[in-house]
């Protein structure tokens, strides 16, 4: 595989790097996530102007025809600054669900609005009892004349507080954990019967519990064929794994760099602690863990489009296993090497570790994906 970025990809990387350097110092981010919304509408509009919001979508729906490699480039740089705008929830999850499961009419109507920054999406796929099983869906969608009536609850819906529309999984037939019978629906956030309990997540982002209490939607809200939404949902989540893997790589890179700078200046016994060989070895181990994660994230970006669904699943799960291992090691070692200051809210290290922990637990943890990979092999 050729892991070299093209000239256009390098230019994209440089533009995102400049944005993060200009807008996402640690203090700037702290002020931003402490607001009620948790991110900047002005910066979201800037994402649209720069073409980042439409980048993964086809040109005929207002996008720029980018590949998962371009998404990897953007999110790795986002990870270095802990960017708080809802890029994953709107572009990767919501937009991805439309790309993989939406009808042509739905894509033509909604994706241009997403690319222009005028529409925010959120994907509701998890439920209280479902753990990491995407097919464990108790939310129901029952036919009522030519419409559907949705009832149930979706848990930890990333980006829910500011979403204009939700894409939710609901059961139209089959048993509680059958892959068949799962359908995807587009629901307006302000529709009658929709309520959102919003909260900040441990990493400073925003999520919500979305309750659907007899929400009536038209037949045109159904994405694809009735009962055949599981494949699109699973594909979307695999793409999200590849995307957040890149973000984790960026966060690990920033955490390693700040730890290295700290041990060069923190003195003990009359000299910088970075001169102690055991800590030098620890930094080497952290560097290796980051490089292992980066290699897997690059592999995922290049293999996630594989025409063979089994190969796509294996690439996503293998990447998640390594990301979970590397993120936990780098985060724990960084906190320990910083000592007490690493545990404080006023210092950046802990915030990076929180984001890495959230990525580890999203879309299935390392143990889940190790078992999934084994079952696929």
Descriptive overview:
- By secondary structure, this protein is α+β, with helices and mostly antiparallel strands.
- It has 3 domains: 7-120, Orthogonal Bundle (Butyryl-Coa Dehydrogenase, subunit A, domain 1); 122-227, Butyryl-CoA Dehydrogenase, subunit A, domain 2 (Beta Barrel), CATH 2.40.110.10; 231-376, Butyryl-CoA Dehydrogenase, subunit A, domain 3, CATH 1.20.140.
- 51% of the residues lie in helices and 16% in strands.
- The protein has 11 helices and 10 strands.
- The chain has a 4-stranded mixed β-sheet, covered by helices on one side. It has a 4-stranded antiparallel β-sheet with strand order 2-3-7-6, with no helix packed on it. It has a two-stranded antiparallel ribbon with strand order 9-10.
- Strand 6 and strand 7 form a beta hairpin.
- Helix 8 runs antiparallel to helix 9 (309-338) and helix 9 runs antiparallel to helix 11.
- The longest helix has 36 residues, at 230-265.
- The protein starts with 6 loop residues before the first helix and ends with a helix.
- The mean pLDDT is 96.
Q: How many strands appear in the DSSP assignment? A: 10
| Range of helix content | 40-55%
Radius of gyration: 21 Å
Assigned CATH superfamily of the largest domain: Butyryl-CoA Dehydrogenase, subunit A, domain 3
Taken from the alpha-carbon principal axes, the silhouette is globular
What distance separates the N and C termini? 21 Å
- Major sheet details: 4 strands, mixed
Assembly form of the protein: single chain
Write the layout of secondary structure elements.
Elements: H1 7-23, H2 26-33, H3 41-49, H4 68-81, H5 87-101, H6 104-115, E1 121-124, E2 140-144, E3 147-158, E4 165-171, E5 182-188, E6 194-200, E7 206-218, E8 222-223, H7 230-265, E9 267-268, E10 271-272, H8 277-303, H9 309-338, H10 348-361, H11 366-376
Parallel strand pairs: 1-4
Antiparallel strand pairs: 2-3, 3-7, 4-5, 5-8, 6-7, 9-10
Helix pairs in contact: 1-4, 4-7, 4-8, 5-6, 5-7, 7-8, 7-9, 7-10, 8-9, 9-10, 9-11
């Amino acid at each position: 595989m050729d892991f070299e970025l093209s000239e256009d990809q390098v230019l994209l990387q440089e533009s995102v790097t400049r944005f993060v350097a200009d807008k996402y110092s640690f203090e700037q981010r702290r002020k931003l996530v402490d607001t009620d919304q948790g991110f900047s509408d002005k910066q979201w509009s800037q994402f649209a102007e720069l073409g980042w919001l439409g980048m993964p979508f086809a040109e005929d729906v207002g996008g720029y025809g980018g590949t998962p490699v371009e998404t990897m480039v953007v999110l790795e740089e986002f990870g270095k600054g802990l960017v708080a705008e809802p890029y994953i929830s709107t572009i990767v999850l919501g937009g991805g669900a439309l790309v993989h499961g939406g009808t042509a009419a739905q894509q033509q109507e909604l994706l241009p609005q997403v690319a222009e920054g005028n529409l925010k999406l959120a994907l509701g796929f998890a439920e209280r009892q479902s753990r990491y099983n995407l097919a464990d869906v108790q939310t129901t969608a029952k036919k009522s004349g030519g419409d559907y009536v949705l009832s149930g609850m979706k848990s930890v819906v990333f980006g829910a507080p500011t979403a204009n529309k939700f894409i939710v999984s609901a059961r139209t037939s089959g048993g509680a954990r059958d892959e068949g019978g799962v359908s995807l629906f587009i629901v307006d956030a302000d529709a009658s019967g929709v309520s959102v309990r919003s909260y900040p997540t441990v990493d400073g982002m925003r999520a919500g519990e979305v309750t659907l209490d007899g929400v009536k939607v038209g037949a045109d809200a159904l994405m694809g064929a009735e009962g055949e939404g599981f494949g699109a949902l699973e594909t979307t989540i695999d793409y999200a794994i590849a995307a957040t893997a890149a973000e984790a790589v960026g966060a690990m890179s920033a955490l390693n760099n700040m730890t290295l700078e700290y041990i060069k200046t923190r003195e003990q016994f009359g000299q910088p602690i970075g001169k102690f060989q055991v800590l030098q070895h620890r930094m080497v181990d952290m560097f290796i863990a980051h490089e292992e994660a980066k290699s897997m994230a690059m592999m995922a970006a290049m293999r996630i489009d594989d025409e063979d669904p089994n190969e796509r699943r294996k690439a996503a799960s293998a990447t998640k296993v390594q990301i979970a291992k590397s993120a936990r090691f780098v985060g724990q070692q960084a906190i320990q090497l910083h000592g007490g200051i690493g545990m404080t809210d006023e210092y950046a290290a802990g915030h990076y570790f929180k984001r890495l922990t959230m990525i580890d637990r999203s879309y299935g943890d390392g143990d889940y994906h190790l078992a999934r990979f084994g079952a696929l092999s």
